[in-house]
């Protein structure tokens, strides 16, 4: 009951302003967000890579409503990639982008977002790394997959996220299992209507496993984007069944969630693990989706408004 309300709040401008103006929310936000600056992000990258965990960095922002902000987001990614290169992190750090932050939903936004993503892919290539396109609400999926196809012509390692809760995803997975294809499979984090997405958690899990079977049997590079121990166990079983080498797939988790497990999977199980590290000032939408996934987190968040 609570999750849909929280997801609706994640898109409320008023709530965004209220949360942003309350400094006491900061410690709660810090659990899920590496900080506001590029320097904060690099500190998190160093600490994770020291533990053998690779990273994908997200400069926070989404749903931009003007071209100036869209260009600013693109430029933030260019600065990030410029900073990662000399640190020799190109091999271990990639970037994740939300096309709505590049202007995808503006008039003519498909082409604006494609041009920005192309520039970021070129900068990523230059330091030996790559880009993954995050997936947002279902209205953007066709545009995002079309942009992916365009980008992969010149940058074949560009990755995409597919969301198991969408009915269409089993077909999308089948079209992205070829050699070189990088797909991060997630359950899905947006509020979607019953006409397009499974609403029941068990149905989502079952759909996830069906997609996983196709990805693990394919020739691409599956990225298991989940903290769910059952799904990770199934992924490993499928990897064995398909004779996959340990470096032919990876597990991905979000910064601040199941940290000890991320380190254990690397140190004790020899798995390749990547943490998704968000940073930047525009944390509200991302943060609210993390709260909606686990409403127990809400208690800590609300307490931060009342404890002074
Ligand atoms: P589930 O929600 O069942 O969680 C399993 C366990 O993980 C929980 O029991 C709890 O222990 C822990 N956990 C999970 N979420 C937590 C939280 N917020 N706080 C504390 N503990 C938590 N979605 C999307 O729509 N588009 C995208 O592009 C992405 N990108 C993405 C990248 C990566 C690397 C990950 C891991 C996830 C995403 N997601 C996403 C989010 C995804 O769709 C999903 O909402 C979350 O991963 C939660 O689902 P789980 O598979 O972890 O299972």
Automatic annotation (TrEMBL):
It holds the Pfam family Pro_dh. Gene3D superfamilies: 3.20.20.220. Substrate binds at residues 98, 289-290. It comes from the Bacteria. Binds 1 FAD per subunit. Keywords: FAD, Flavoprotein, Nucleotide-binding, Oxidoreductase, Proline metabolism. It catalyses: L-proline + a quinone = (S)-1-pyrroline-5-carboxylate + a quinol + H(+). SUPFAM superfamilies: FAD-linked oxidoreductase. Pathway: Amino-acid degradation; L-proline degradation into L-glutamate; L-glutamate from L-proline: step 1/2. GO terms for biological process: L-proline catabolic process to L-glutamate. InterPro entries: FAD-linked_oxidoreductase-like, PRODH_bac_arc, Proline_DH_dom, Proline_oxidase. The keyword Iron-sulfur does not apply. Signal peptide: none annotated. GO terms for molecular function: nucleotide binding; proline dehydrogenase activity. Its EC number is 1.5.5.2. It is an enzyme of class 1 (oxidoreductase). Residues 42-300 form the Proline dehydrogenase domain. FAD binds at residues 135, 163, 187-189, 226-227. Its cofactor is FAD. This is proline dehydrogenase. The lineage of its organism: Bacteria, Bacillati, Actinomycetota, Actinomycetes, Streptosporangiales.
């Amino acid at each position: 009951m609570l999750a849909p309300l929280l997801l609706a709040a994640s898109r409320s401008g008023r709530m965004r302003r209220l949360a942003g103006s309350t400094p006491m929310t900061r410690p709660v936000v810090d659990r899920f967000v590496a900080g506001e600056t590029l320097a904060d992000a690099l500190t998190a990258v160093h600490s994770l890579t020291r533990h053998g965990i690779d990273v994908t960095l997200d400069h926070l922002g989404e749903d931009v409503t003007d071209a100036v902000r869209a260009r600013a987001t693109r430029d933030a990614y260019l600065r990030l990639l410029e900073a990662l290169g000399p640190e020799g992190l190109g091999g271990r750090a990639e970037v994740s982008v939300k096309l709505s932050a590049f202007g995808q939903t503006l008039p003519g936004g498909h082409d604006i977002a494609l041009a920005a993503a192309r520039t970021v892919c070129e900068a990523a290539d230059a330091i030996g790394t790559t880009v993954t396109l995050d997936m947002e609400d279902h209205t953007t999926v066709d545009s995002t997959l079309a942009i992916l196809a365009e980008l992969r012509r010149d940058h074949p390692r560009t990755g995409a996220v597919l969301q198991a809760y969408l009915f269409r995803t089993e077909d999308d997975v089948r079209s992205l299992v070829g050699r070189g294809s990088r797909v991060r499979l997630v359950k899905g984090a947006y509020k979607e209507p019953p006409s397009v997405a499974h609403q029941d958690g068990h149905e989502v899990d079952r759909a996830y496993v069906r997609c996983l079977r196709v990805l693990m049997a394919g020739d691409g590079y599956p990225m298991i984007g989940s903290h769910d121990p059952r799904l990770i166990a199934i992924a490993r079983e499928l990897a064995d069944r398909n004779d996959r080498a340990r470096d032919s797939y990876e597990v991905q988790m979000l910064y601040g969630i199941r940290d000890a497990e991320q380190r254990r999977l690397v140190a004790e199980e020899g798995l390749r693990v990547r943490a998704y590290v968000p940073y930047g000032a525009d944390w509200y939408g991302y943060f609210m989706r993390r709260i909606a996934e686990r409403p127990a987190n809400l208690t800590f968040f609300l307490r931060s408004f009342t404890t002074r």
